[in-house]
Structure formats: C-alpha cells, structure tokens
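STRUCTURE REQUEST FORM
Protein name: N-acetyltransferase domain-containing protein
Source organism: Spelaeicoccus albus
Requested output: structure tokens
Priority: standard
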Amino acid sequence: MDANTEAIVRLAWTRRLGLADDAMNVPGERLYAISTDAVSFISIWGRHVMAGPEWARQRAVSVADDELTTHAGLLALTADRGGHGLGPAVLAYADVDTAVRDVADDKPLISNDHADVRRLESLCPPDDVNEAGLSARESVFVLLDDDAAPVAAAGFDEWNAIVAHMAVLTAPNHRHLGAGATIAAIATSEALDAGLVPGWRSHIDNKGSRRLAASLGYEEVGTQTTVLLAS
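Status: completed
Returned output:
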C-alpha cells in the first residue's frame, strides 16, 4: 500500500478517536482515547490504541496488547461493567493503485435509493443485516435485476472526509454469483472518485467478506476488537 495512503488512514483514525493528528505517526507505546459506551482496541501498522472509559484504561495498563486484541481479553476486562457483543474485526484498505474498479457488466442497473436497501435487507438474515448496517450508510448503491428487484448493495459513510467506511450485502440467492463483487467495486470506485480511501471492516470469522475484500484489492492492515458496555 502506498505510504501516503497509510498516513491518510492513520490520520482518519486519530481524528475519529479524538487524538492529535500526529499521535499515530510513530509506533511505540499504547495510546488511549475516551469512549463512554464501548471499549475498543485498535491495532494498525504496529500502532495500538485503546478507547474506553478511564476505569478501563487503568485496568488495561498491566494487560498485554496481544490479549486486548482478543474478544476474550476485552470481555475479561469489562465483564463486571456489562461488556458484551461485537468482538474482533479485520481492517482492510484500498487505494488507487490496488483497488479493482472494473465490473463484468458494463451497464448494471443501479439505484441510490435507501428504500431499495431496505427491500434487500428484508431478504437477508438478521445477523448479516446488522453487521453490514447498510440502511444507515450515507451513500448507497443497489444492484437491481431486470425486474428492478435488489440483488446486492454496497455503501459507505465518510470518516472526517478522509475514509469511506464500506459495507456490502447480497441477497442469499445471489451469493457466489458475482453480484456482491460488482456492487462493491462500483462503491469502491465512487469512493475513490470522491477523494476518499475505501476502508473495509469484516468480522474476523467472516471469511466470505474477507475474501471479497481481498479480491477487490483491499489489504488487511490491522484489527479492531470491541465490546459494548451496559447503559
């Protein structure tokens, strides 16, 4: 990955976490950021950041980075505060030199209507819908069939006008047929044309999502492990 792209991604994370712009420039000791409703441990390019309440920071001082990268490690840290859910995810990014932007269908039928996203979500398992969170994305691209029915969708949110946080969802009866790759390539291309770095986050056990990202030129560069806290 281009060194400039790496620097841009680090900048996006520091701003999202409320850190100084140069906080992640040099690998070194663990950084801490404030978060009240969740505890996260982010590792990218040898930089480690823990985000959470002050009590979590104090508990984590004596815990190794490798342990905090695991779901079990964060659950142990937060069990008495209601820590639950989410778990470990892989972070991947693409740039203009690595992204696959070509699609097999040179005239795909595309909708940008969130109503079509919701129609697609109604066809998919709830766990897949929740992981993608597509209906909440700012920009969406829905691949329609000849009958104008949704078969796959991709979309992204902008992080500080720097990174496009991507998501993809495919109808069960259209999986492994190229629909997801087509719409993800289109969304990736749109993000790049908007001057954004496309970013992809997959649950560590979601091999299908990780394979799709790799096929589109996304490079895995780190992890994010998160547990939610009781309200």
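Reviewer notes: Residues 3-91 form one domain. The chain has two domains: 3-91, 109-215.
Form closed.
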